[in-house]
Specification:
heterodimer, A: 372 residues, alpha/beta, Spore Coat Polysaccharide Biosynthesis Protein SpsA, Chain A, UDP N-Acetylglucosamine Acyltransferase, domain 1, 2 domains, 5-stranded parallel sheet, 28% strand, B: alpha/beta, 6-stranded parallel sheet, globular
Chain lengths: 372, 391
């Protein structure tokens, strides 16, 4: 089954502005050594998809730097491989504003591909998922679109995020799609991962003006769910999306749970790939104390680390205590400083004797390159 | 094609019998070192960091692991359009084929490789030393001296000198004498087994050596003494820094321990001279609720629930709750059960050690390391005494 991959790298940038100030959502660090996009890229590669387009819009330097030629995902290929698709603007066409406009922008990429099916995904889909089965079902159902859905219990959270709930019949045919920022209770939610037939997609783009299509979820999924053959595919494994800083914090620290870690990193022997940095092994001195934490290569730990995630090349000096925190690449925590419920972005320098603390529902965020 | 200035030939065929179980199923250069590396990563990374982009890797003993590990040379940035890493095993030719008889013969059998790149100089390296070195500095001296051969030299402890090739040289560094493993060493200037030759001179010498039926076809025993006798221009290049021959269990264990401490003898995380290796796609290492880690280095993918002291832990190692690992080296993907005790032990790759096992002894030392070879599965409650080897 020849399948093409398309990844949206910017689609929810606005929802987590602290971390996307200088990068795309796709390049947000996650899990101690990964970027969000690594999960979907690895999932596609592990499913045998070897041609993947990444749609970008703004601030995509860090993303380009991260993915490079794609060789770390085995995507540096003569035919296919990884293709970064920068925004396409001509005349007075400005940058795309919606997912549908973004898709229209890659019409040529789609036209010049010969794969029959397209797996489309957002980049904040943290899971270890093989697309083969859903593509097979999609073909068997003669579907136009197959949306991958996940049963979720939405808490009485204050945060409002646009979510897409899906209802379907016994044949898994989607009967109703609701897009709202007020959903609560037990719902079957769209994961923003889907399989779509390439010809169908091109037809949508071709007729967009005529049919007045502007938004993918509103016009294609919500209004079109009776007209098009849309099916659902339920996924019940580990799945996280990242839609706010508090949520990012909670979803990250969840990885300290072995079950979740095993499901995300080792399921069915499928690995998650990332850019190789060739850091030296992590070093722990005689005074180091590390408990219930994830520590990546290149770290130098002289102090105490508890319930935390340290990315590659983090230094924790003597007497420093890092608890319930997430510390990004190359950040240094000075002697006798204390960090509690902190998210420290890349290359932050916390000098000596500083005390910084947030709360588990409101982690304290330190921006990239800050000196405290 | 443009000529290469210098091509490296890496001798990686050695069996390394004094590493016992570590090399019964793998060649010495493929033995793990420093948590995430293999010995061969050091000379290969040195080449890349010195701007040498063409490396012939001569394999012979158990070559499959090395072939697979090196692949197209990508991890060391040696996947090049012209040049790059090439694995060179012995081969069959029209007039017969044969195994590599000695270090010199191994290069002799690959003269066609040297001719293909037709470099002016050839750097000869061996795959059993741990060190970081900028070969371009040695090459510069070699060219400035208009040398036929330059030998890299390190001053060793006088008591150890008889294990090495020992030489004398004048103030201009021109070598006046060379003795391989002398009983009574005349100096402590030891050869590191790193040579740069003018290619034309090397080809002549190798051809002459091959024609000599008495020769054992070895650089230290034949080529170097013959060239010296023929008054060739031979110079010493003084190397200062960390260098260790890891040919024995004791020295390999010691070299691993040299990575520990507040000021380790060998540092791996300086930006300018990274050591590259083939990385496994594993998540960061997890430390459990009761984990303790004191003076150690660990790499990715481990799950640590026990206590680890003064040790070097490779990729994907699991250490169970209640287990104490002390003064030990555990290589990739080995699993240690619960309530076990490891002291002065070296555990090779893919080993499983059952709960409540005792490996090595607390009162042991570098000369009595308990060794468990690749792929062994030790049952619950196993005991491996200090200095014992499980092949």
């Amino acid at each position: 089954m020849k399948t093409l991959g398309v990844i949206f790298s910017n689609i929810h940038d606005k929802e987590i502005t602290e971390l996307t100030g200088k990068r795309t959502l796709a390049s947000i660090p996650f899990g101690g050594r990964y970027r969000l996009i690594d999960f979907v890229l690895s999932n596609m590669v592990n499913s045998g998809i070897s041609k993947i387009g990444v749609i970008t819009k703004m601030n995509y330097q860090s993303l380009m730097d991260h993915v490079g030629s794609g060789k770390h995902w085995d995507l540096s290929r003569k035919t296919g491989g990884l293709m970064v698709l920068p925004p396409y603007g001509a005349g007075d066409n400005s940058l795309y504003r919606s997912r549908f406009e973004a898709i229209c922008g890659i019409e040529n990429f789609l036209k010049h591909s010969n794969e029959d099916y397209v797996v489309m995904s957002d980049c904040d889909t943290v899971c270890n998922f093989n697309f083969n089965d859903v593509v097979e079902k999609h073909v068997a159902n003669h579907a136009d679109i197959t949306v991958i859905v996940c049963r979720t219990e939405l808490g009485p959270s204050n945060e409002r995020r646009m979510r897409t709930a899906v209802e379907y019949d016994k044949e898994m045919r989607v009967t109703k799609v609701t897009t709202s920022d007020k959903l609560s209770g037990k719902k079957v939610l769209f994961t923003n991962m889907m399989v779509i037939s390439r010809r169908f997609l091109l037809r949508l783009i071709d007729n967009a003006d005529e049919w007045g299509y502007k938004s993918f979820s509103r016009d294609v999924l919500v209004r079109g769910c009776r007209e098009h053959r849309i099916f659902a595919y339920e996924y019940d494994g580990y799945f996280s999306t990242v839609d706010s800083l508090a949520n990012y914090y909670a979803r990250s620290l969840e990885l300290l749970d072995k079950k979740k870690r095993d499901e995300l990193f080792y399921k069915d022997g499928a690995n998650i790939y990332t850019k190789v940095r060739d850091s030296a092994p992590a070093r722990f001195t005689g005074d180091a104390k590390v408990v219930n934490s994830l520590v990546a290569d290149g770290c130098e730990i002289e102090g105490e680390v508890r319930n935390s995630i340290l990315f590659r090349g983090v230094k924790v000096a003597r007497g420093a205590v890092v608890t319930d925190s997430i510390v990004f690449q190359d950040t240094e925590v000075g002697e006798n400083s204390k960090l509690h419920c902190v998210i420290a972005d890349k290359s932050v320098k916390v000098l000596e004797d500083r005390i910084l603390s947030g709360h588990s529902t409101h982690p304290y965020f330190i921006a990239k390159d800050t000196v405290i | 094609m443009k000529k290469k200035q210098c091509v490296a030939m890496l001798l990686a065929g050695g069996q390394g019998t004094r590493l016992y179980a570590l090399t019964s199923r793998a060649p010495k250069p493929a033995v793990s070192f420093g948590a995430k590396y293999r010995i061969i990563d050091f000379p290969l990374s040195n080449c890349t960091n010195s701007g040498i982009d063409t490396v012939g890797i001569l394999t012979q003993y158990q070559p499959l692991i090395l072939n697979e590990y090196i692949g197209t040379g990508g991890p060391w940035d040696l996947d090049r359009m012209y040049g790059g890493a090439h694995v060179l095993p012995p081969y069959q030719a029209k007039t017969g084929g044969e195994w590599y008889k000695g270090t010199a013969n191994a290069i002799y059998q690959n003269i066609h490789f040297l001719n293909e790149y037709d470099s002016e100089h050839v750097l000869i390296l061996s795959g059993d030393h741990i060190y970081k070195m900028d070969y371009s500095d040695m090459l510069r001296e070699h060219i400035e001296n208009d040398a036929d051969c330059t030998i890299s030299v390190i001053d060793v402890d006088e008591r150890e000198a008889s294990r090495f090739g020992i030489m004398d040289f004048g103030a201009d560094k021109r070598i006046t004498s060379f003795e391989e493993k002398p009983k009574k060493p005349r100096s402590n200037h030891a050869s590191m087994g790193i040579y740069i030759f003018k290619k034309s001179v090397l080809v002549d010498e190798l051809t002459a050596d091959e024609a000599d039926p008495e020769s054992v076809n070895d650089f230290g025993k034949n080529i170097i003494p013959n060239m010296l006798a023929a008054k060739k221009r031979m110079f010493a290049y003084m190397f200062k820094g960390y260098w260790k021959d890891v040919g024995t269990v004791a020295s390999l264990w010691e070299a691993n321990m040299d990575l520990l401490g507040d000021r380790p003898a060998l540092t791996l995380n300086d930006a300018g001279s990274k050591i590259y290796s083939r990385n496994e796609p594993l998540p960061p290492t997890f430390f459990g609720e009761k984990a303790e880690v004191v003076n150690c280095i660990l790499t990715t993918g481990c799950e640590i629930y026990g206590k680890v002291i003064n040790s070097v832990i490779g990729e994907g190692v699991v250490i169970g709750e209640g287990t104490v690992v002390e003064n030990s080296v555990i290589m990739s993907n080995s699993t240690i059960g619960k309530n076990a005790s490891l002291s002065y032990a070296m555990i090779d790759e893919n080993v499983e050690i059952g709960d409540k096992s005792t490996i090595g002894d607390k009162n042991s030392d570098r000369d009595k390391i308990a060794l468990v070879g690749r792929g062994n599965k030790l049952e619950k409650g196993s005991v491996v005494a200090a200095g014992e080897i499980v092949d």
